[in-house]
């Protein structure tokens, strides 16, 4: 029987984990090991994937992957195990404390002027970035879905100028599965920080300690920060910190990063262990009694065999031994073992598999989890089901319910659109626009009174005020949209969307995880492209990056609103919804095309943790909104203002710098003229239109300011409704702005970046031509 | 050229100067993550700040 055959709410014991390669290793790392109990919680609304509970946390798996895991059904469902030992009288070991672990002033300290570098390492969604912000006083964005941090970030610990802490992307183990995990693993292995701050989610301690085991093998001074202890205690649980510290051989500090509790003590311990180079006391987690000692004998035999190679390669030998047994190719290659040694290793591993009954990867995972369960039995009193977990269950009964998930998703999206464009954003936009108009009139009157020369008057009023003012008035809408996207992200809802959209996305060759970059793409393409790093396969990453720019970003909203006001006054909702829908439809068509050509094959398996819902933090949301507003204002008063002035000048003068009476004779008309024949089939063969689209490459908002400057008599008097429709479709689909192209270049290289520009211009042109032909027919 | 012209031109020159300075500063500081130089917000790029 396989996991796929398990009925809802039933539990089973895993007997064998199938599959191959990195995916199988990932299953094992996530705790799906022989002997573990697993409960089927629910299926996604479309019947695939499913949500499972293992080791007290929720995990999603596709049915095809569940079929690779053999099980034996168990009676009853998994319940939190009450501890036999609530609080022990274990004496405080005092690791990482001067005067306790070693006499004050003794030890092997680094020179006082050494900059102490720390790596902040932990599972995804364990609170690393929250802790990083507390440690450094910085304002990095924090989210509530796995994989918010996709790149390393550095900062100095507050009050300790000689320190540098690096926040790394969350990882489940030191086996590289996705590119973000490679970032973290490479940092720890290659840059050799003075210390590691390992953040462990105390509410999900078993799975989190799995990574801790591997970090201990790295033999780098380390402190375990036991985060979310407030939640554990609040739900009736407790952890014997002294016993845990003794078992792990490194200082363990209980903290609550969100409430800023225990941070000072954590810093003190981290600095101490790094300064005095106090490496973990324990690197060896095999037990002579486990599986008849097969793993123990194998691990030690290989340890001695590769010790010299590990020293030369600069890899900690205990870590290297475990990785060699697991068959980690990267480590094996780095060790440069000769053929005899490789053959000997194969024989030793084979012997272990025969004696222990588990294959090489499963045996090592089993060794680690056996150690973890042993120390958790001794030191952890598990809390009952937490308030957060119960609340999440209640919310999920609706938000991921079979019949309610997709209607609620549609409702939430509609509500966000309604509130953004009509109620909140729209109202504020009208107020701001009225303020800008009043200011423009005042300045206009003042310039008239002062008898300022017509050229200067025109530049200020028709150029700067009209151009920048028209863009500026969209600030409230953009900030409101980011506000709602931030709420979705911080609450944990986006992870659920990925869960129930997986089956649909698989039909176009993507995994549910691709929905996260795409939703972020409705805000801005740049962070959306960056967030594709959480996708574990190159194929999925590339495909998602190429599709994300088709999602209509917030910077395009001013274009839509500008045209809607001019041409489609009574049909605002229809035009906006139509454009957003068209972006999605085109991305689906392009995905289907890619699936059959450039990116053949299947999407990667959907293995994802579903975090509990949390109340978004006002500070976090506020910071994000401030950053977005600041960014928008900066662009309005720098690049857009300059572009406006340049456009105004170019359309007012010819190449001899004589003022022209008709803009057709201007420099701009000549320069943009070469695009006119190309754009004619789409009904956009006007040099003013071509110019505005060109400026949109710098920043999409510039399209509006350029049109405002060039069509002094009002765009509604110059263009037809048909041209407006064609223009909107072209603007929706054509090349993303230069910032987005730069991020695509960084992720995929310059060839892909150039390819995206050309490809999207072609797609946009094609659809604009189609729209133009349809409008001509009707 | 009258006095108001000179005043308007001076204000324009300062505005344009600041805009150019701002654009160059953003470009220099900017990491390409779209934050326009105010990198502490999203932190999505490795070039954001203090990259060693």
Provide key terms for this protein.
heterodimer; A: Helix Hairpins; six-stranded mixed β-sheet; 32 helices; 14 strands; 9% strand; B: 52 residues; 1 helix; 52% helix; 0% strand
Folded structure, characterized:
The complex is a heterodimer of chains A (778) and B (52). Chain A is α/β, with parallel strands linked by helices. Chain A has four domains: 3-79, SH3 type barrels; 116-275, Rossmann fold, CATH 3.40.50.300; 290-381, Helix Hairpins, CATH 1.10.287; 407-777, no CATH class. Helices cover 56% and strands 9% of the residues of chain A. Chain A is built from 32 helices and 14 strands. Chain A is elongated. In chain A, 54% of the residues are buried. The model of chain A is unreliable at 77-82 (pLDDT under 50). Chain B is an all-alpha fold and 52 residues long. Chain B is built from one helix and no strands.
What is the structure about, briefly put?
By secondary structure, chain A is α/β, with parallel strands linked by helices. Chain A is built from 32 helices and 14 strands.
Number of helices of chain A: 32
- The arrangement of helices and strands of chain B along the chain is H
Report the sheet-strand fraction of chain A: 5-15%
Percent helix of chain A, as a range, is: 55-70%
Content-based structural category of chain A: alpha/beta
* Low-confidence residue ranges of chain B: 32-45, 48-52
Rounded to an integer in angstroms, the radius of gyration calculated over CA atoms of chain A is: 30 Å
Q: Name the beta content range of chain B.
A: under 5%
Radius of gyration of chain B: 17 Å
List the uncertain runs of chain A.
77-82
Total DSSP E strands of chain B: 0
First-last Cα distance of chain A: 61 Å
């Amino acid at each position: 029987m396989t996991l796929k055959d398990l009925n809802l709410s039933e539990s089973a014991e895993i007997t064998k984990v199938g599959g191959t390669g990195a995916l199988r290793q990932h299953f094992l790392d996530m705790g799906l090991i022989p002997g573990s109990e697993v409960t089927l919680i629910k299926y996604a609304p479309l019947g695939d994937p499913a949500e499972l509970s293992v080791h007290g946390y929720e995990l999603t798996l596709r049915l095809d992957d569940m079929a690779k895991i053999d099980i034996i059904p168990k009676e009853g469902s998994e319940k939190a195990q009450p501890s036999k030992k609530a609080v022990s009288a274990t004496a405080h070991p005092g690791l990482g404390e001067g005067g306790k672990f070693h006499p004050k002033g003794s030890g092997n300290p680094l020179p006082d002027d050494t900059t102490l570098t720390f790596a902040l390492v932990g599972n995804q969604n364990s609170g690393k970035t929250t802790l990083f912000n507390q440690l450094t006083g910085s304002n990095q964005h924090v989210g509530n879905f796995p994989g918010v941090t996709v790149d390393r970030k550095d900062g100095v610990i507050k009050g300790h100028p000689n320190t540098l802490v690096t926040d790394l992307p969350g990882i489940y183990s030191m086996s590289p599965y996705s590119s973000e995990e490679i970032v973290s693993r490479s940092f720890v292995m290659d840059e050799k920080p003075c210390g590691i701050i390992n953040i462990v989610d105390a509410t999900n301690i078993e799975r989190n300690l799995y990574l801790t085991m591997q970090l201990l093998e790295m033999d780098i001074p380390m402190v375990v920060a036991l985060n979310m202890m407030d939640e554990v205690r609040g739900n009736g649980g407790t952890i014997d910190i002294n016993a845990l510290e003794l078992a792990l051989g490194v200082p363990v500090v209980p903290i609550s990063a969100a409430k800023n509790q225990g941070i000072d003590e954590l810093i003190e311990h981290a600095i101490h262990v790094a300064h005095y180079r106090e490496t973990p006391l324990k690197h060896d987690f095999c037990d002579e009694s486990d599986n008849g000692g097969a793993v123990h004998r194998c691990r030690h035999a290989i340890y001695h065999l590769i010790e010299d190679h590990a020293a030369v390669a600069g890899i900690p030998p205990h870590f290297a031994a475990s990785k060699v047994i697991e068959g980690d190719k990267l480590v094996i290659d780095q060790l440069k073992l000769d053929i005899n040694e490789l053959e000997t290793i194969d024989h030793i591993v084979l012997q272990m598999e025969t004696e222990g009954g588990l294959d090489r990867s499963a045996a090592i995972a089993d060794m680690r989890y056996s150690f973890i369960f042993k120390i958790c039995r001794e030191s952890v009193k598990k809390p009952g089901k937490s308030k957060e977990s119960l609340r999440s269950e209640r919310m999920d009964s609706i938000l991921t319910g079979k019949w309610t998930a997709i209607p609620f998703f549609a409702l939430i999206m509609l509500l966000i659109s309604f509130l953004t464009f009509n109620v909140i954003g729209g109202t504020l936009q009208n107020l701001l626009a009225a303020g800008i108009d009043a200011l423009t009139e005042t300045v206009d009157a003042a310039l008239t009174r002062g008898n300022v020369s017509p050229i200067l008057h025109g530049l200020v009023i028709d150029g700067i005020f009209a151009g920048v003012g028209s863009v500026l008035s969209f600030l409230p809408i953009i900030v409101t949209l980011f506000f709602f996207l931030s709420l979705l992200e911080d609450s944990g809802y986006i992870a659920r969307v990925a869960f129930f959209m997986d089956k649909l996305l698989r039909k176009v060759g993507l995994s549910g995880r691709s929905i996260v970059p795409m939703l972020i793409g409705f805000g801005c393409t740049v962070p959306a492209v960056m967030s594709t790093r959480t996708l574990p396969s190159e194929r999925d990453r590339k495909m998602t990056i190429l599709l994300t720019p088709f999602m209509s970003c917030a910077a395009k909203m001013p274009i839509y609103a500008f045209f809607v006001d001019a041409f489609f006054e009574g049909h605002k909702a229809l035009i906006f919804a139509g454009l957003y829908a068209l972006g999605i439809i085109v991305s689906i068509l392009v995905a289907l095309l890619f699936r059959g050509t450039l990116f053949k094959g299947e999407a990667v398996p959907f293995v994802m943790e579903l975090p509990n819902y949390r109340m978004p933090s006002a500070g976090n949301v506020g910071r994000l909104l401030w950053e977005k507003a600041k960014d928008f204002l900066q662009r309005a008063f720098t690049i857009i203002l300059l572009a406006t002035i340049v456009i105004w000048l170019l359309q007012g003068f010819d190449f001899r710098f004589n003022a022209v009476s008709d803009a057709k004779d201007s420099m701009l008309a000549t320069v943009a003229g070469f695009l006119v024949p190309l754009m004619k089939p789409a009904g956009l063969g006007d040099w003013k239109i071509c110019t505005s689209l060109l400026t949109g490459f710098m920043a999409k908002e510039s399209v509006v300011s350029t049109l405002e400057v060039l069509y002094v008599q009002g765009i509604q008097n110059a263009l037809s409704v048909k041209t407006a429709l064609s223009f909107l479709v072209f603007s929706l689909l054509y090349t993303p702005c230069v910032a987005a192209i730069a991020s695509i270049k960084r992720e995929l290289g310059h060839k892909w970046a150039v390819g995206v520009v050309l490809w999207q211009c072609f797609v946009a042109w094609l659809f604009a031509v189609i729209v133009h032909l349809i409008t001509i027919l009707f | 050229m009258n006095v108001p012209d000179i005043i308007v031109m001076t204000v324009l020159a300062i505005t344009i100067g600041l805009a150019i300075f701002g654009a160059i500063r953003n470009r220099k500081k900017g990491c390409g993550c779209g934050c326009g130089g105010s990198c502490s917000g999203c932190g999505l790029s490795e070039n954001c700040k203090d990259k060693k």
